[in-house]
Amino acid sequence: MPVPGMRGHRRSPVDRDPVHTNESPGAPRRMGRVCARADARLSYHKRRCTETAFGERDSGSHVGREVRCRIDAQRPRKTNRLRESMRGIRTASTGRLAGLAAMFVMGVGVALPSFAMDCAKAVQPIEKRICANPALRAADARLNAAYAGALKAAPDAAIRGMLVRSQRRWLDARNKRLDTDYEGHRLAVDEVRKAFDRRAAVLADRSGEGLIARALAERQWLAKYSGGPLAGFDANCDFIPDDASGAHVSYACFGAIHVQHHARVCSQSEDWATGAVYQYRLVSAADGGKVHPVAFCEAQGAHACDSGSAQAGWVRAATPGGESRTPAPVTGLPQLDAELWPLGDGGDAAWFDRCLTAPVFPDVH
């Protein structure tokens, strides 16, 4: 996926361009090259998948048989979120599994929602289905109560706003996926009810694994860096099939994390393609609200993207034919998103720290 606005963009070598150094505006300038981190937008890159024997529809959906993606020879890196509860796809952990079929009415800002569904105004097929089924109505009520409790438990407006965005995002996925599966077959009532109850459990969780605790941990981690207009989270969440049948689905979130420290932005994005999660990294130079991609890397197999060695797989943004899998960071992204936290098994946080604080990163020539 080409970087928007960067087609044909060429820069002087980064080792001779001070904008690529990790300097604060008032610091003495130091020559160096800054490594740019791979950033994904809401429309994250999904690889084209081909069906083993039966082809695929124009929409890209599966025809109900086993599918297989055209991927690199190396085995993709699976993050901790993939490892926790994997049934053939990357699913979220219990703390991430979300299946909401609750209808709430939200005004501008972070006002508390109205928790009762007005069935006379039901428009979406899934809303009508909820209204017509007592079991789903009961699950909807449990979910609404859990959501109200989460909003009341939020310690500040920023975390409350994050919860509101999370619920709106879930509703979008609900409307698209919880009535029928990817093939247009209606999901069983019990599968929909389970999705509601999983989401209610996530919203009601006040432990260290809950959304509020994860947001606080995320904020504490970000406080180590200067921040800036290009920092933020860009998540895309959906219900994805647990297996080739498509009869069971789980809610999962992917996307990009952009962290800014002075004049450098390091980004890590995750995409889901059938059966695996793919991770990309990008390092960019920040010039006010403008961004200049410097180098990108796909974390596959031996390509760990954690150094500047030849094995790391970094590609300079100005390299002819080079193509980043993720677009550059943009201004105005949310500053918290618990559904993209925690990071990986420890290596991801260490990578961010090296990328953001090293005098030069990556040191590729």
TrEMBL record:
Q: Which UniProt keywords apply?
A: Membrane, Transmembrane, Transmembrane helix
Regions that span the bilayer: 97-116
Keyword Transmembrane helix among UniProt keywords: yes
**Lysozyme inhibitor LprI-like N-terminal domain ranges (all copies):** 119-178
State whether keyword Transmembrane helix applies. yes
Any matching Pfam family? LprI
Which parts of this chain are annotated as the region Disordered? 1-31
**By what name is this protein known?**
Lysozyme inhibitor LprI family protein
